[in-house]
Amino acid sequence: MTGTKRVKLKPGDTIGILGGGQLGRMLAMAAARLGLRCQVFSPDPDSPAFDVVLNATCAEYADVEALELFANDVDVITYEFENVPAAAALVLDARRPVLPNRKILETTQDRLAEKDFVTRLGIGTAAYADVTSVASLREAIVRIGLPAVLKTRRFGYDGKGQAIIREGDDIAKVWTSLETKAAILEAFVPFEREISVIAARSAEGQVECFDVTENEHRDHILKVSRAPAAIPDALAEEARNVAGKIADALDYVGVLAVEMFVLANGTGPKVLVNEIAPRVHNSGHWTLDGASVSQFEQHIRAIAGWPLGKPVRHGEVVTMTNLIGEEINRYQEWLTVPGATIHIYGKGTPRPGRKMGHITEVLPARDK
């Protein structure tokens, strides 16, 4: 799908990271352990990733001069969030390799394009329809049925930009509340559980998947992830194969997450792809302390042109718990918990729904 630019970094070279949130922070920390430098570009002066790098650029993504100067200072560019403005990615790609390839963003930034892409691969998704008006929404509901989920095609995350439509709802009111002219209606999936696969792929096509992770959301925000997911081995293998197929079709370089629903049907459970995240992912944070190589190190290895690691899980079960909002103020409660490691992101004032840190807990393997 993409013409991947080959990169071969050496210790001392510099990686440019677009985005200064906690994912960028943890990428930079992983790179430092491998002897690689990082420079972060973010418009937010309070970006927590700025705290762990020597050089940072605080400028808007529309600032072409700042982007060019940033590109001149680095050897390869990556990103911690998928909504990188297309114009900014184009400016950077003309000067330095951007990995994963910027063209992948055209697919993953648009929910409809993403669903079409997955469907063309013969991989299952919830039934869906393009929606551009109240009239087309009513037509989509006739085809798909209710309940259903209406989502903006772009810029939605943590439950934002979406609404569940049920029988008796005011369709016109729901459409207006979303404040968009481009949406997608998806059939409501009666899933048994939500899982994700964190996969890494090198430019040579090597794919390494972490253990399938089971995810629990509260108020549309990921709260707890557990690895391995409580699913049959055959289903876990199917989920990893789906993620690998997607990574290969994208000619992907780096780490991506594929979120899936597990359905129970007459012939046994099966998986449907919900979303693709072309970056390191919250549900992979358990790998920082629970695996032989973390998702962040795998991403750095992939974009640096280094061999990927073989992920081996530490312990029998690894749990990751997000500290959201005011929960961060109770961080000391975790400091003496056996097997627990706390990660604090260095953000500012806690507020509802804001991810401030996370805890990983490793349950040692039982003696046979």
UniProtKB/TrEMBL annotation:
SUPFAM superfamilies: Glutathione synthetase ATP-binding domain-like (SSF56059), PreATP-grasp domain (SSF52440), Rudiment single hybrid motif (SSF51246)
EC assignment: 6.3.4.18
Alphabetic keyword roster: ATP-binding, Ligase, Nucleotide-binding, Purine biosynthesis
Catalysis: reaction(s): 5-amino-1-(5-phospho-beta-D-ribosyl)imidazole + hydrogencarbonate + ATP = 5-carboxyamino-1-(5-phospho-D-ribosyl)imidazole + ADP + phosphate + 2 H(+)
Chain residues that bind ATP: 111, 151, 156-162, 186-189, 194, 217, 274-275
Broad class of enzyme this protein falls into: ligase
Pathway info: Purine metabolism; IMP biosynthesis via de novo pathway; 5-amino-1-(5-phospho-D-ribosyl)imidazole-4-carboxylate from 5-amino-1-(5-phospho-D-ribosyl)imidazole (N5-CAIR route): step 1/2
InterPro entries named in the record: ATP-grasp, ATP-grasp_carboxylate-amine, ATP_grasp_subdomain_1, PreATP-grasp_dom_sf, PurK, PurK_C, PurT/PurK_preATP-grasp, Rudment_hybrid_motif
ATP-grasp domain residues: 115-304
Subunit structure: Homodimer.
Record-stated family: Belongs to the PurK/PurT family.
Protein's job: Catalyzes the ATP-dependent conversion of 5-aminoimidazole ribonucleotide (AIR) and HCO(3)- to N5-carboxyaminoimidazole ribonucleotide (N5-CAIR). Catalyzes the ATP-dependent conversion of 5-aminoimidazole ribonucleotide (AIR) and HCO(3)(-) to N5-carboxyaminoimidazole ribonucleotide (N5-CAIR).
HAMAP family in the record: PurK
Protein name: N5-carboxyaminoimidazole ribonucleotide synthase
